[in-house]
Please model this.
Amino acid sequence: MDSAGSLDSTTFRNEDLPALFHHADAAAISRQRESTQATRGQLFLLVAAAALAALPSVPVGPLRLFGALSAIAYAGVLLIGVRATRRRARPQWQLNRSAAEFIKSLAWRYAVHGAPFGSDRGDPEGLYLSRLEAGLAELGKMGWSDPREGGDVPGAEPTGIGPEVRRGGEITPAMRRLRERPYGVRRETYVRDRLIEQRNWYRRRTEVSRRATAVWSWTIVLLTVLALFFSLLRALGSGPGAGLSGLLSAAAAAGIAWNEMRRHHPLIEAHSLIEQDLAAMMVVMQTTVTEEGWPSAVYETERYVSPQHTDWLARHSS
Model:
């Protein structure tokens, strides 16, 4: 076999995953952006409302200009909250992310003979499809919308049984090609294109979270110190009025809320632990794992990178 053909056969990327994964992944990114923007908008309007309320009154007819603008900002907070509740952006973000990662994990396990799709399985495709449908059905019970039902997934065809649910393309040609390769090729591909890629992703996310934590922590400290300083001046009978201290307090509270919503600190702990587990598993896979123990090793690796495992670590981090 020529070197180009060998290289192509041992490369497995996200592009080789089923269309259903890409649809769920895109939906998760879109809903995450929507949820984040809604929270950011609410916090910004709350700080703006506090700032407007702190400004001197400017009569405009029967109204006070800045007081009216402050009331409008508070109304905007309520409207954004109502819209976000109706749109269910955050729950749909989490459901679509769970669906995408579940499909990705299952596809990798099938392609490299990870448990329960080991080499001794007589009908691995049938088992894969049944596990896939069972997992997606559980997500459907929690509110996830299967895009195949509306024909939104390319390559899917209607089954003609019961409600129109389209099937097809859940196993890609690249998945089948990788599954047919020898054990050594599958192991090399999995370690390089899945395990190392995920380990590097967790490392990058840890660094991003560390930088964000530092920025927001110092910003909150600065705002709090300024609020304390102006409050002390006011207590001594000098300095600006209470409005400025209130504005700084509102800004600090918004910073705390944003930092908590992004969960930077617990994710640093969780991502660091997972990166360590993946580094250890990489050594094991490259040195001591035999072909008989390979399915279990893949299953354990996929458990490490599951969203449920990350959430559990984040909740129990110190």
